[in-house]
What we know:
By secondary structure, this protein is α+β, with helices and mostly antiparallel strands. The chain has helices at residues 3-24, 91-103, 117-120, 251-262, 290-298, 338-342, 393-426, 435-441, 445-448, and strands at 53-60, 65-74, 77-80, 86-87, 108-111, 138-143, 149-158, 165-169, 176-180, 205-216, 221-232, 238-240, 247-249, 268-271, 301-303, 309-311, 315-320, 324-336, 356-367, 429-434, 449-451. The strands form four sheets. A nine-stranded antiparallel beta sheet has the order 4-3-2-1-6-7-8-9-5. Strands 12-11-10-17-18-19-20-14 form an eight-stranded antiparallel beta sheet. The chain has a two-stranded antiparallel ribbon with strand order 13-21.
Amino acid sequence: xxxxxxxxxxxxxxxxxxxxxxxxxxxxxxxxxxxxxxxxxxxxxxxxxxxxxxxxxxxxxxxxxxxxxxxxxxxxxxxxxxxxxxxxxxxxxxxxxxxxxxxxxxxxxxxxxxxxxxxxxxxxxxxxxxxxxxxxxxxxxxxxxxxxxxxxxxxxxxxxxxxxxxxxxxxxxxxxxxxxxxxxxxxxxxxxxxxxxxxxxxxxxxxxxxxxxxxxxxxxxxxxxxxxxxxxxxxxxxxxxxxxxxxxxxxxxxxxxxxxxxxxxxxxxxxxxxxxxxxxxxxxxxxxxxxxxxxxxxxxxxxxxxxxxxxxxxxxxxxxxxxxxxxxxxxxxxxxxxxxxxxxxxxxxxxxxxxxxxxxxxxxxxxxxxxxxxxxxxxxxxxxxxxxxxxxxxxxxxxxxxxxxxxxxxxxxxxxxxxxxxxxxxxxxxxxxxxxxxxxxxxxxxxxxxxx
Length: 452
């Protein structure tokens, strides 16, 4: 075989091998999968203030059901529909959640295979066609005016070895991304409200009255057992009325009581019937609808024969330096978990959990103007408009009296305004507090004194 023929054979073999190598080479990932890397998930959602509702849907694997939690803008304020439209006080959380969603970017493409959804935790919690209870993510939906969807995503598990990153998928797409995210996904009722019920610091409380009584539910008569008065004296120490022989006030117990008032937290809420009086302390029982009476009784409250509101576990009054007097009426016990506890229903809200014992609490506020003794008024106001050099001794005295009287009026006005704000907040609601809070507040005389 001559050299020319050999050369042609080599060329032909090389060509064949090249074709085989090209055919057998592994396929590459389609470049289109990376074209949107670094792009925002929701490019048209740029203003967090355009959101009018936020819904967070988690999944309870124990019950095999989705747990929705929603806040929406209604009648000029943010409320929680699942909790009887209770006000959502955590506006900063709302704004931060919306802003975090706006900032989400498609950082790293991971997969577009539904077979990986379970492992990555991005199965839609609302997907009823998927029999698996594991791998369910948390779905977050933001809507704007006219219920237009501004953002809708499923947030899955943390990305292994990548702190601050989670797997994220859009519900109508298969692509899953590893995303740097600090989106707050809390669906707990307590995280979206102002849980500090009284909003008073212990240092502002100057007197506590405990009215220990029981009710004959059939006759509505009251068995008065004890009236305890704790008073803060000028030196900051506390005293108690009718201190028995060889007994002393237990200052630790008083401290614990003040701390309990300071930290009293809302566990749940129930709406009062429309039209029910804010305090009912002087209401005529005949003027209260029978449906309202039944609502009160179901929570452990009764209207006495003289029209007073009574509670089956007694009541407490806390007086403050602002002139506000809080009245706490302790009602019936209730046991529950999740939204059954926080809202009295099973329609979403908090996730499920172990049942716990709690108590109903009826709260109202009143203003005690006598807490501020009115100072002497100026005999005249001739001092007004005069330069200091022309003020007489009488003018200076009247000017000083006017200043003190104006300060007194300011304190009274602030106290009244605060009382109105508190009653506006308390008026429509029965509150639920923990059993621990109830035990810390529901005290008897022997709990507050000790042997000498």
